[in-house]
Specification:
392 residues, mainly alpha, Growth Hormone, Chain: A, globular, MFS_Efflux_Transporters, MFS_trans_sf, membrane, transmembrane helix, transmembrane transporter activity
């Protein structure tokens, strides 16, 4: 079998994995109907059906980073997809109480965490140089594209019955079959993803890895503001309600798709200053939210902030693949996935305490805090030249 053919078959496996990475919160549209079906259940318990998967995914990402150093890509992918399928499809038959649904959501989260660790490691092993960077971009575009499709289908099914929403997880069976057929049955150490003769010392290598992982967590702290504050922002300025917020937030996902497809253009345009340009985009989006209050400017701000976040979350895994050996990279990416999830969850608390420093208006204070944090990160990137040092 030719190397080119192997590359294409591996790509099919990668696409299969991208199709299911965002399924851990697919049940969110059904929470109201689930509460109506179980009126005696604690509302917080019901809400956790959509949120506990994020916590489980964070833990699983970190653990699977270590597991992937001992098993093959195929074995890890099959394990993760089996967990996703079990947690997503068993509720169709077992749904007597909310506790059961929470347990299944937990299993889905574990599977999702496994997949988000396998996917970048497999992509790094399959491709080199700029093609690898492009693949990371395509992965993000596909993940968000598939997520939008599943959200629409899930919302439609939820209108029929909350139980029907679980039918979305049938895609995991298809992904599982494709993974068995096309994900390579090799260990990460069988295909080195980095040149060990880099002109970077081992000490500096780990320093750069740690710095980039921390920056990636801060990216999620910043981008999560859109999810946490958009509905409040639109309501405060009398722009629209929850449905309007949903439309505005679609521009964050659209930005991810555009950034994923166009990452090579962004990279050629900004070179070693791409990460700094990404945070500049976040600053511009926050400035628009502060000074202009219409739906379309809110959508534009969401697109700019989503673009900045996507650029960082596409570029950083690529840079990490240059710095970490094949044996270490799964652990690094497991930590990356866990800390980005933590950053998303921590965002509301971070701005709860930093926003009042800048304004008595919580929304305006949050946006100024976003700008300040982004400026600090840009200065660190410019003076330390982290991206240049991490590039090969």
């Amino acid at each position: 079998m030719s190397r080119k053919l192997k590359s294409w078959t591996t790509l099919v496996g990668i696409i299969a994995l991208t199709s299911v990475t965002r399924l851990d919160s697919i049940m969110a549209p059904s929470l109201v109907k689930i509460q109506q079906s179980f009126p005696q259940a604690d509302p917080t318990q019901v809400e956790s059906i959509a949120s506990i998967g994020d916590v489980a995914s964070m833990v699983a990402s970190f653990i699977f980073g270590f597991i992937l150093t001992r098993i093959t890509y195929k074995q890890a992918a099959v394990l993760g997809l089996s967990l996703l399928a079990a947690g997503g499809l068993l509720p169709l038959w077992i749904h007597q109480n909310v506790s059961q649904l929470i347990i299944f959501a937990l299993i889905v989260g574990l599977g999702s965490g496994a997949i988000t660790t396998v996917l970048p490691s497999l992509s790094a092993a399959a491709y080199q140089g700029e093609r690898r960077s492009d693949q990371f971009g395509f992965n993000v575009a596909l993940e968000d594209g598939f997520a939008m499709v599943w959200i629409v289908i899930g919302g439609y099914l939820a209108n029929i019955s909350w139980l029907h929403n679980y039918y979305v997880y049938t895609i995991t069976i298809i992904a599982l079959i494709l993974a068995i057929l096309f994900v390579p049955n090799i260990h990460p150490t069988d295909n080195e993803v980095t040149n060990n003769k880099m002109n970077v010392s081992q000490k500096n290598q780990w320093g750069l890895i740690i710095a980039l992982v921390i920056i990636s967590m801060l990216v999620e702290v910043l981008v999560a503001v859109m999810t946490n504050k958009m509905a409040l922002y639109l309501h405060y300025y009398h722009i629209g309600g929850p449905s309007t917020a949903g439309k505005a937030l679609l521009f964050v996902r659209a930005a991810s798709i555009v950034a994923g497809i166009g990452i090579s253009v962004y990279r050629k345009t900004f070179g070693h200053y791409l990460l700094a340009a990404g945070f500049s985009s976040i600053i511009l989006g926050a400035v628009i939210l502060i000074y202009v209050h219409t739906f379309w400017t809110s959508a534009l701000a969401a697109f700019l902030i989503g673009t900045g976040g996507s650029i960082a979350l596409i570029t950083i895994p690529f840079l990490l693949s240059n710095l970490a050996s094949a044996k270490v990279y799964p652990i690094v990416m497991g930590t990356f996935s866990a800390l980005t999830s933590l950053g998303f969850a921590f965002s509301a608390w971070f701005f709860k305490y930093t926003a009042p420093i800048f304004s008595s208006n919580n929304l305006i204070g949050t946006f100024w805090a976003m700008i300040t944090l982004s400026v600090i990160i840009i200065l660190v990137l410019l003076f330390s030249q982290i991206q240049k040092k991490a590039s090969v």
